[in-house]
Amino acid sequence: MATPKRLLLEHLYDGDLAAEVARRTEAGQSWRDIANHIAEVTGQPVSYETVRTWYGATEAVAS
């Protein structure tokens, strides 16, 4: 279930935030850079740990 903060950021972000995060991680951007971008666009602070927790679970895990 999405947190109120995540719902707020997704509402304020102009576009599909999940798709943008996926695009940026695939391009090799750091979680900190992605979080800074989200904060800049939405005007709401968000930590890189929070962004990684929300969207990092979709990354492939080496086994």
List the helices and strands and how they pair.
Layout lengths: L3 H9 L4 H10 L4 H12 L5 H8 L8
Helix pairs in contact: 3-4
Description of the structure:
This protein has helices at residues 4-12, 17-26, 31-42, 48-55. With 63 residues, the protein is mainly alpha-helical. Helix 3 (31-42) packs across helix 4 (48-55). The protein is globular. The mean pLDDT is 90.
List the keywords.
63 residues; mainly alpha; 4 helices; 0% strand
Q: How would you summarize this macromolecular structure in one to three sentences?
A:
By secondary structure, the protein is mostly helical. The chain has helices at 4-12, 17-26, 31-42, 48-55.
Which regions have little confidence, pLDDT < 50, spanning 5+ residues?
A: none
**Share in β-strands:** under 5%
Overall SS class: mainly alpha
Q: What does the largest sheet look like?
A: none
Give the overall average pLDDT. 90
Terminus-to-terminus distance: 27 Å
Broad shape: globular
User: Could you tell me the number of beta strands?
Assistant: 0
Radius of gyration: 11 Å
Order of helices and strands: HHHH
Report the helical percentage: 55-70%
